[in-house]
Design a protein that fits this description.
GIY-YIG endonuclease; 17% strand; alpha+beta
């Protein structure tokens, strides 16, 4: 007899978000002020979700910086959003915001592919150009640490406490 999981789609579309107000309150004030500046954005996927949006050409090809993948379902316009992933690109080794962001179209990391394939239709790319590689790293780390996006695999300051095994009975 074949089993059918009637909740499969619901399970696929469910993510756990960590909303830790204690972490939010610990953000470095200098970084908070910096990222309060003007972010630019584009819709990430093209209209039929078969490729990257042509607006990717608006993303700087001569700067590093921070980028954020954000879902905007527009159920409540301009209010209903979810930060899914935060990344950075340093200028060393010839990388740029545009080049790095284009790579996400074919990125095969499980969480990234999951984000792109399940929510690509509502996925937006926000970017904040920066030139200072050390600052770029600090900003990315701090934003990931306090926001804890569900598609980032490595969260600074997050750890798993392993407790000694005990008998259940």
């Amino acid at each position: 007899m074949n089993m059918v999981d009637m909740c499969k789609r619901e399970k696929e579309l469910t993510l756990d978000f960590v909303l830790n107000i204690d972490k939010w309150k610990t953000i470095d004030p200098k970084i908070k002020q910096l990222v309060s500046g003007q972010w630019e954005s584009i819709k990430f996927m093209n209209e039929d979700c078969t490729g990257i949006n042509k607006d990717i050409d608006k993303v700087p090809n001569d700067k590093g910086g921070i980028y954020v993948f954000l879902l905007k379902p527009e159920i409540i316009p301009n209010l209903h959003t979810y930060i899914m992933y935060i990344g950075r690109v340093r200028r060393k080794n010839g990388f740029s915001l545009q080049r790095r962001c284009k790579e996400y179209l074919s990125d095969d990391r499980v969480k990234i592919a999951y984000m792109r394939e399940l929510w690509g239709e509502e996925l937006y790319l926000y970017y904040f150009p920066l030139d200072d590689d050390e600052l770029i790293e600090r900003v990315e780390r701090e934003l990931i640490r306090v926001i804890i996006p569900p598609c980032n695999s490595q969260i600074p300051d997050q750890y798993i406490a392993y407790l000694p095994a005990t008998d259940a009975f």
